[in-house]
From TrEMBL:
Associated pathway: Phospholipid metabolism; phosphatidylethanolamine biosynthesis; phosphatidylethanolamine from CDP-diacylglycerol: step 2/2; Lipid metabolism
GO cellular component, one term: plasma membrane
Site feature (Cleavage (non-hydrolytic)) residues: G246, S247
Domain of life: Bacteria
Family: Belongs to the phosphatidylserine decarboxylase family. PSD-B subfamily. Prokaryotic type I sub-subfamily.
Name of this protein: Phosphatidylserine decarboxylase proenzyme
The organism's taxonomic lineage, starting at the top: Bacteria, Bacillati, Bacillota, Bacilli, Bacillales
Source organism per UniProt: Kyrpidia tusciae (strain DSM 2912 / NBRC 15312 / T2) (Bacillus tusciae)
Amino acid sequence: MESRFSLIGALLALIPKRSLTRAAGRLLEHRVSRLLIPWYIRRYSLDLTDAILPPGDYRSLFELFTRRLQPGTRPVDPSDTTVTSPVDGVVEAVGVIHDGTFIQAKGHAYPVADLLGGHFPDELEEGTWITLYLSPADYHRIHLPLRGKPLQAAHIPGTLFPVNRLGARGVRRLFARNERWVTTFSTAAGTMYLVEIGSFIVGSVRLTYLPEEIQRTSDRKVPQKWEVSHMPTIGKGEEIGYFAFGSTVVLLFERGRVEWQSHLKTGDPVRVGQSLGFIREPR
């Protein structure tokens, strides 16, 4: 099995991922892509019951991917002591950070510092993390898991391996190799690290809470950081960005501050606003 996944990783490395992603992105945003919408809905069994627009009103596949939902269709757990899901998707992995490492997929553990761009905050040792995967059929907007004040936003360039189960098991250190944003917030659970990971076809992550100039000047070749502590606090459940097509979010919290729901396990479906865990008082 290990050799099989090593072969998969080698084959994925040969694909011109960024060129194909750019080409796909142009197609997905073009009006001609709307002709593919009926096929796409059938292919991925999209449930558009909660969407604001009916299928025929989307002008492109990109608009369908980034669709908005009707108000009230994703109720947010109102408790000040819960952490809610930032996305619709499935639990890819969940656990506690040991010796500065976390698990990407079964048998694939590597340093959290690699994921965060080279720095491992001491307070994350024995902290908690959860990885959520969004499929092409999912609602693709990202919402804040709990009320928080933005502290820092970092854009880390990289490649664009697919982040589905095949990619997660076949490419070592996948999340640390793909293009991503690392955003930190001050919350009732201490500092929260929210990592939005780009993917094959997705290409970029749009963080709508950030000023437009940051979005425009992020360089794909050079890591960049912006201090954003001057920005106002964002409410629990508020939208902060979106993916196109499908991707992955990783949430990390300081040690002793968040306890995940005991029933959470790999493969569990989650929805925006659903409680994932409980905030614990610092000792």
